[in-house]
Amino acid sequence: MRALAVAALPMLALLVSLPAAARGVAEGSQLFSQRCATCHTVGQGDRVGPDLMGVLKRREESWVTTFLESPGAAIDSGDPVANELVKKFNNIRMPDQQLTDDERKGLFAFFRDCAEKGSCQPGATGPKLASDATPEEIEHGRQLFEGRVALANGGPACIGCHNVRDIGVVGGGTLARDLTFSFARLGERKMTPALKQMDFPLMKELYGKAPLTDAEQYDVKAYLAQVSRDGTPPRKDRDFFYLGFVGLGVALGFIGIVLGGRGRSKDGERGDT
Ligand code: HEC
Ligand code: HEC
User: Is any atom of ligand 2 closer than 6 Å to the C-beta of 175?
Assistant: First the structure.
């Protein structure tokens, strides 16, 4: 019995490692677009820094690992390759990156994958990343969120139920979760489908018939990503329960309008508001 279990182990490891490798490529690609693509491409030529296509072929992996631990230290230590690169790239020193082992492994998997395919568009494998948004898209997302610009299909503004720290004196609704850190918590991978499906209580009913367009989903996502990037904690929701009732009233009003006819219930009939 034990022998069987031992024999099964390598197979299990293989089964587990395959998806893990694929995950590494996607994560590496995303990390690359977020933190390296300002200065590097993979296959589209030199920019501020060298084109990284095939970098793990032209250099030893151990060299790249040491270099990434601290480009500054590699240059200062007199490493000949690093110093040649600095000279070639106009004396611009690559800033230290602080990558975890997992992040570095993801990047390496991504580099290898690109070299194998012969080309690479970082981030192009999945939906457009929030970090690629222009200031105009972020601003448009804010206006949609706050209801300053109407949603194309007529859905209610998010501010009716959600707050974000960003919103000034008036404040948003407190019926549902404060979304300030939702993007940080959910990440690209969960936020993108969340805004597409709107599969949350109340939202499902409201936006089922009035979904956000693809562009609106993107702009709102970009806005929420922007909001989540500011690290100071939002104000405490100490009035949550009190304000929650106000928010609930607002939301029920919305639902009444959307579902039609039910918004004008007689006074006293709705004990919960
Ligand atoms: C602000 C610009 C900048 C950013 C951001 C940046 N780099 Fe660099 N990188 C450079 C420059 C410039 C060089 C050339 C060496 C030097 O001058 O420091 C370089 C060199 C490299 C090299 C060596 C290339 C070779 O041909 O051997 C690697 C590998 C590398 N960078 C990876 C990365 C990764 C991975 C990231 C993101 C986590 C990153 N860089 C972020 C500017 C940058
Ligand atoms: C009628 C009230 C209502 C409106 C309007 C509304 N939501 Fe929600 N939303 C909810 C509720 C309820 C939940 C689930 C419970 C919670 O997270 O508080 C939720 C959850 C979410 C979540 C998941 C939060 C997380 O961190 O898990 C996101 C993201 C979200 N809403 C985005 C939006 C966006 C974007 C809009 C505007 C297009 C919007 N909501 C409009 C009520 C609403």
Answer: yes
